[in-house]
Each structure stands twice: as structure tokens, then as C-alpha cells.
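User: I'm putting together notes for a lab meeting next week and I want to include a structural view of one of the chains we've been expressing. I don't have a solved structure, so I'd like a prediction I can at least talk through. The sequence is below, exactly as it appears in our construct file.
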Amino acid sequence: MTTARWLCVLILALVPLAPAAAAEATVEAVQSPAWVNRDGLRLPLSAGAALSNGDEVVTGVNARARLRLADGSIVKLGENARLRIESLDLAAGAKRLLRGTLRVLDGAFRFTTAALDKPRFRRELDIEFVTVTAGIRGTDVWGRNFPEREVVVLIEGEITVTPRGAAPLPMRDALTFYQAPRTGAPSIQPVPMDLLTEWAQQTEIQPNRGSLSTSGRWTLSIARFDNQDDALALYDSLRRDGYPARIRPKPVAGGQRYHVRLEGFASRAEAEALGARMREIYPGVAPEPMRR
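Assistant: Thanks for the context. Below is the predicted structure for the 292-residue chain, given as C-alpha cells.
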């Protein structure tokens, strides 16, 4: 292994993340496996990571991601989702304006705005699905590309839905949903509460599934190696599979020991949950939770 290769790993482990103020979005929490596609590279999605225009966030099976945009609004992604940050810009001023486009390529998506942020910001966002665009001006919206239809749910506020090649449709009634079947006419109708509850859970971080967050103080030590190359082999496998692993070298008598670990669990239970999954996926590892 080259010195340059090892230096890259150390930099990734030790250099602070880009400040949130400089980013179009920041990863607040992630239930792995998940990735970000950037400049031709596929990187594991990590809590605290800064996202920029052009980035594409991808979640895997049973995965979730929660992103915070520059104005404080929240974007949530369900499993097997893909979201591309096409263009986001937060303009300065007395009442700042967030404008731009988010493209939902696959899976379930939710956009929410905190009550405290509503008076301080204006929003002119377009959420693009495959055949439908939802224009958001400050609201709570859920949507998904189902195999047989596209759905956009207005939970609160108002939006404008524009089907491809058709006139815009204003939606001002909360708890209604627009659906566009692959064949047949679109419609707007009230959403049953039990269905909304089911859909909303598809984009929520699930408890005790090993999620990582920016406020988490627990670490999962997945394995320890005396050999640098062995540590790197597991590190590469984890990151390729969508887990933001790090290597922490620690001096021991006669050399170094290399700890491959995941950081940012909110509790011991969260770390143990992912540790159990690690033992199934990577035979021979012995995950151990520890408080940072």
C-alpha cells in the first residue's frame, strides 16, 4: 500500500467536514446503506457531510436519509431512493429566498419546514418527479414514484402541480393528494389518514436500525487489525457497501493497531443494532459499541 493511499484515509478520518454554512444541504442523519454520487465518484453518505449542487443522494434497502437545506427546511428520503440536487441558491436579504430544483428520480421523498423558519425565509422550489413538478412556496409535501403511478401529497400549505405537457394545477387544500397513473387520467382527492400515516413512515428514520446522526456520541468499533492492508480491505468493503467507515490508528507496543469503526450513533442500542447486521454481512468481525 502506498504512503499516498494511507494519507488519503487519514485525511478522511481526521479533517473536519465542510462547514454547513457553505453547503446547499447538509446530511443530518442517515440510516445506511446510502451513498452520494459526485463528480463520477460513489461515496458513502455520512452524517454531517456537506452536499452541493450536482450531488445525487442514493439510499439502499431499508435505508433512510435526512437532509437539512440552507434555510433550515428538511428533506427526507426513504429506501431505494435517488435525489439529485439540481440547483439550490439562498439569496441574502431581510427575508431570505431559497430557490432552485430538487429532482426525485426514485423512491419516497418528503419536504418539511419548521414553524420558526417560515416567517424568516421565502421559498421558490421545484420538486421534479418523473412526469410531475411540484412548485413549493413553503409547505409540507410528501411524494413518491410508485411503479404504477406518481403521488404528491399536500400535508400543509399550498403547492402547484404541473404534469408534463399540461397546465399547472393549484393545490390549496391540506391533506389532499395528486396521483398520476402511468396510464389514465390524473386526479386530486383527499388522502385517508391511515394511508398518509403509512406513507409518512416510509421517509422517517427508524429506531434501533443503526442510524448515524450529527449529534450521536456512540461509536461502533467493527474490527481491529495489526496489519494496515487488512484494515484497508475491510474499510474499502464497508465504504463501497454504503457505510461511512473510518480507520483510527492507535499506537501499541511494537507498532500500530488499526481500528475500523463507524461514528455517530445516538445510543448504545443503535450501535448494537448495526453491529448485529455487520456480523451477518462481514464474517469474522467483532463489533463493539463504545461511548466517545
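A couple of points you could mention at the meeting. Residues 78 and 206 are 10 Å apart (CA to CA). The radius of gyration is 21 Å.

User: Perfect, that's what I needed.
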